[in-house]
Amino acid sequence: MSHAVFPDPAVWQILFNRQVENLKTKACPEFFAGLERLGFEAGEVPVLDHLSQRLYQLNGWQIQRVPGIVDAGDFLAMLADRIFPSTYFLRSMAQLDYLEEPDMFHDLFGHLPLLADPAFSEFYKKLGALGVAVHGNTEALERIERFYWYTVEFGLVAAPAGGVQIYGSGLLSSFGESRQIYGGAVEIRPFDLVEILELPFDKSQMQPVYYVVPDFEFLFGQLEKLASAGLALRPVLS
Ligand SMILES: [Fe+2]
Predict the structure, then answer these.
(1) Which of 90, 160, 168, 237 is the most buried (most CB within 10 A)?
(2) Mean pLDDT, residues 112-140 taken together
(3) Residue 166 lies inside a defined structural domain of this protein
């Protein structure tokens, strides 16, 4: 896939304005707090160095520019070091709603607001550390990837007034998929650790099932449970 050399500010502006408006009734409050903390604006394509400095001042995390998808083991090792890899290409105007791979709107708008949250950034780091701890164990790594997928990328959290709110970055950065959650045609299940660890996912299409946690304390507890189960995940959990 070839990418334009410079992100198109008009594309950023459209994506940003459209998604902030769309997420007002959908995203968890931590997302909006993070958006503000980081100083994201519609009229300005973020500069990775500036954003990285701001994040570093907030909680010691840094952003490292990468050309595309990073191998799972390397990705988790970066998280363990409080480094978040981000692309620096932006979809074109013709690709507003369809992407073959994550771009900077996904990486920055989708991931960084929650990463600016103190508790959530620790969650990212612990997930990374867990990946480092199982280095070389393909099966264990795959389970950590699934955990990451059904939480960090596509997770939902119970809304205080009923219903669900989005905290997963894949949903936060997708206009179509975030709306689909509220369309009544998708399956939303209570978070089940054993189930998600065994459930393969397909990156090439919208997800057929989403998992909702009652709150973030519960989510962080699930990671502790996964970590304490070590390499013998299934026998310990079932
Ligand atoms: Fe992502």
Answers:
(1) 168
(2) 94
(3) yes
